[in-house]
Amino acid sequence: MSETGKEKTKRAMTILYEVHGNLYINLTNKCPCACTFCLRQTRDHMEESGSLWLEHDTSYEELVAEFKKTDMNPYREAVFCGFGEPTQALDVLLRGAAYIKEHYGLPTRINTNGLGNLINGENIVPKMHGLIDTVSISLNTPNAEEYHRLVRSRFGEQSFDAMLDFARECVKEGMHVVMTTVDTTITQDEEEQCRRICEEIGAAYRIRPWED
Ligand code: SF4
To answer: How far does the centroid of ligand 1 lie from the alpha carbon of residue 126, in Å?
Structure first.
């Protein structure tokens, strides 16, 4: 959702935070979508994170400084997620992932809306090769029209097909691709259609639990 009109938003530079025992990384609050279900509409944090509304986009230097202050040993995975779309901050995303690989050897993941190629105006997937291991993409629904209604992407109706193409490119580059819908938000028949879309693409299908 847009921050426009949001009063008294508490901002902090919460760059690293922990969710389900994994290290999460907050690079930006920018996003081309305004999903009707976006968690940012009802909360400003995840678990004990503190506010995920950033004072400004995280710079590479700020990210590395946070890594150096943090004991990385307990973490099994580093996840670029946060309160925005990580591919909106492509340069810091790629450099940050390279730093993680070089210094900690941790598996990396992005949680994304799958619109990174539209956002950046080019196929960014080859650039992610070797830096991002898992790509978790919000599929949301098997239906292009419904997707458009739910996600309200500023790229309009091309977004659904662009998201599917992004997933195909990631599979082609050898990444582990997981496409997700949220439990109870679509019918079982629609879940079956999503499963078939994922099979055709070569992605795993995951139904995420509902978080309010
Ligand atoms: S893509 Fe994610 S961050 Fe962007 S509006 Fe949708 S749920 Fe929120």
So the answer is: 24
pLDDT confidence of residue 1: 44
The neighbour count for residue 65, using CB atoms within 10 Å, is: 12
Tell me the Cα Rg of the chain. 17
- CB of 79 closer than 6 A to ligand 1? no
- Res. 132: pLDDT tops 60: yes
CA of 151, closest atom in ligand 1: 6
Q: Which residues contact 174 (CB under 8 A, 6 or more apart)?
A: 129
C-alpha–C-alpha distance, residues 20 and 89, integer Å: 24
In 20-131, DSSP assigns E strands to 22-25, 78-80, 108-112
Average pLDDT over residues 114-142: 98
Residue-wise pLDDT for 10-67, tens only, equals: 899 999 999 988 999 999 999 999 999 888 888 888 888 888 999 999 999 999 999 9
31 C-alpha to ligand 1 centroid (Å): 6
Residue carrying the six token digits 């902090």: 12
Using DSSP, state whether 132 is helix, strand or coil.
coil
